[in-house]
Structure formats: structure tokens, C-alpha cells
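Session log. Operator J.P. requested a structure for one protein chain; no other inputs attached. Running the standard single-chain path with C-alpha cell output.
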Amino acid sequence: MNSKEPRFLAENQSVTSLVAQLHNYFHNSYSRDKVARSTLLSQIEAAEDGQVLEFQKQLREIDEELVLLGILSDSLSIADRLLHMRSVRRELGPTSAAYKIHHDQSSPVQDKTA
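Structure written below.
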């Protein structure tokens, strides 16, 4: 990888904004799974014997996913908070690649020579 420019960013996005968006995504996914888990627990309580095993299998799958989503959310939360700390912004500097807005390099740049 020869370029220092982050090519994975969307137009008008910075690394910092991407981290914040990813944190929100995984945090929201975790919350949705917590609701799904709660719903599933209610279904288990009302289930007949034949359904309980299937619901318990689904519960184990949701629990495994919750662990992963929780770790991702927590990790991105830490990164998001660090990138937004005044001391980190000051240390990295306002021109740091983490804070620069990405602009698509493939669009032609107009020559402003007169």
C-alpha cells in the first residue's frame, strides 16, 4: 500500500466520522439484538415443549452475537472518544489524516489559472 490517503472513505468523510458512524452502527445493532433476545425469552416462557429447544438454540445464537457486537461497540466507543478528545486533536494536529475530510481524487480538478 503506497498511498497514505485513506481510500476506504466516502466523499466528504473523515476517519473520525467513520469511526463515529461505525460505533453508532454496532451500538444500535447491539440494542436491536437485546430487544430480540427479550422477545425470544417471552416466547420461550409461552412455548410448548416442542418449540423450546428451537427457541433455546436461537437464544444461544443471539447471545453469541451480543458478545461480539458488545466488544465491537465498546472498542469503537473508546476510539471515538479518543479521537474527539481535545488533547488528542491537539497532539495529532488539525491537518492529521484522521480529521481531514476525504474528497474523491478521481473527479477532475478544474485549473484555475487565468
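Operator note: Confidence is low (pLDDT under 50) at residues 107-114.
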